[in-house]
Amino acid sequence: MFLNYFALGVLIFVFLVLFYGIIAIHDIPYNMAKKRNHPHADAIHTAGWISLFTLHAIWPFLWIWATLYQPERGWGMQNHMPQSEPTPDTKPDLDALSKRVAELEQKLAAVQTSAQKNTSEQ
């Protein structure tokens, strides 16, 4: 009789350990994302809970998603060039934009002065 109760206790213990172990494992990507200040940490946490219903089929993708973001360098998918000096291929674009801004400022000043003249005449 004692062995029956002991076996039942072991069975319940094993069930609880498996249950909480699965929950702890599914939370690993979320904990990583939270530690790295991931911008999508809440989405990773929600997807982790959804992965429980898909038998953790999407769990490896959540792991990858959580590890892609690095707090010191972002997603790490672009080349970080020093921003102190523009590259030669962007220099003409900057010159064209500067010229366009100067033209728009002149037009705005002309419109403002004509509007002030109209209001002072009335």
Structural class: mainly alpha
**In DSSP terms, counting alpha (H) and pi (I) runs of 4 or more, how many helices?**
5
Distance between the termini: 106 Å
Look at the structure and give the mean pLDDT. 86
Secondary-structure element pattern, one letter each: HHHHH
Show unreliable segments: none
Strand fraction: under 5%
Key descriptive features of the protein:
122 residues, mainly alpha, elongated
List the helices and strands and how they pair.
Layout: H1 2-26, H2 28-35, H3 41-53, H4 59-68, H5 91-121
Helix pairs in contact: 2-3, 2-4, 3-4
Give a structural overview:
- With 122 residues, the chain is mainly alpha-helical.
- The protein has five helices and no strands.
- It has helices at 2-26, 28-35, 41-53, 59-68, 91-121.
- Helix 2 packs antiparallel against helix 3, helix 2 runs parallel beside helix 4 (59-68) and helix 3 packs antiparallel against helix 4 (59-68).
